[in-house]
Amino acid sequence: MSGTAVIERADDRIQRRVEHLMGMPISLALRGRHAASAAGDEAWQAVIDQLRHADAIFSTYRPDSIINRLDRGELAVTECPAEIAEVLALGREAERISGGAFSIELPTGDGRRRLDPSGVVKGWAAQRAVQFLACLDDTDFCLSAGGDIVCHTADPSRSAWRIGIEHPRDPSTLIAMVPVRSGGIATSGTAHRGAHLIDPRTGGAPSGVASVTVIASSLTWADIDATAAYVQGRDAAQWLQTRPIRSALVVWADGTTTRLPTYTQTEDPTPRYTD
């Protein structure tokens, strides 16, 4: 679970759908031509089917998943679905650019390293699934996968989606609000799941940072960069300045914040965080 949420005023034009999948709530807000149409329903079902397919391949909680069979040596990468090679390549690239702060091979208590690309899969799977929503003409969407969000606004006359960022010390309150027209937004932290994030280089917990939120053109990389920055600990903001993201919000362990405007995207100006 991540510390972001779609915040919208009551509006009959927005149609919402939700389903629990991959151990988290998957929710969709649609507005525009196909918000309440059969085509919108079909696109939503295609999103869910796509995410179920990803779960069958990558779930580390299912003994029969492809990723667990690969980790046990029962399969070679060449014997796996093409999605495996794609995710592993993303994981290797993320490890390279983060100096090892992000890894798909995590230390275990018995001294081995287990294959676990979960840090890639959620954002990648959601970004991949929105292809079915993007085919809906004159329709805006906001898809949330456990709080990591992909937004799209087809009509420039319609308002941006308003995304609330939860306070890492009190998830019932917001520390900031940010408008996003199109792109991905992800938050990494321990407010919902406890101290589940570790530094793969040391096996220890990161320190100095409470949460990191990243907005980028793709949820795949927003999610990866938020996780990698969190693991960087006190170097989180400095590291994020090297990344081609739109903006970021780092909440430090003492409650102070650093807001990072970076590379402005011409198609969607750098969002401004408001308290």
Please explain how this structure is put together.
With 275 residues, the chain is α+β, with helices and mostly antiparallel strands. The protein is built from seven helices and 13 strands. The strands form three sheets. Strands 2-3-6-7-10-11-12-13 form an eight-stranded antiparallel sheet.
Secondary-structure map with pairings?
Elements: E1 4-6, E2 15-21, E3 24-32, H1 38-58, H2 66-71, H3 82-97, E4 105-107, E5 113-115, H4 118-129, H5 131-134, E6 139-145, E7 148-152, E8 161-167, E9 170-180, E10 183-189, E11 209-216, H6 219-232, H7 236-240, E12 247-252, E13 257-261
Antiparallel strand pairs: 1-8, 2-3, 3-6, 4-5, 6-7, 7-10, 8-9, 10-11, 11-12, 12-13
Helix pairs in contact: 1-4, 4-6
Brief description of this entry?
The protein has 275 residues and is of the alpha+beta class. 28% of the residues lie in helices and 29% in strands.
Task: Name the descriptors.
single chain, 275 residues, alpha+beta, 7 helices, 13 strands
Beta-strand content: 25-35%
Q: Note the total helix count.
A: 7
Order of helices and strands: EEEHHHEEHHEEEEEEHHEE
N-end to C-end Cα span: 22 Å
Q: From the alpha-carbon coordinates, what is the Rg to the nearest angstrom?
A: 18 Å
Q: Give the helix level as a range of percent.
A: 25-40%
Uncertain ranges: 263-269
Please state the overall shape, judged from the principal axes of the Cα atoms: globular
**What structural class do the secondary elements suggest?**
alpha+beta
* Major pleated sheet: 8 strands, antiparallel
- Number of DSSP-assigned strands: 13
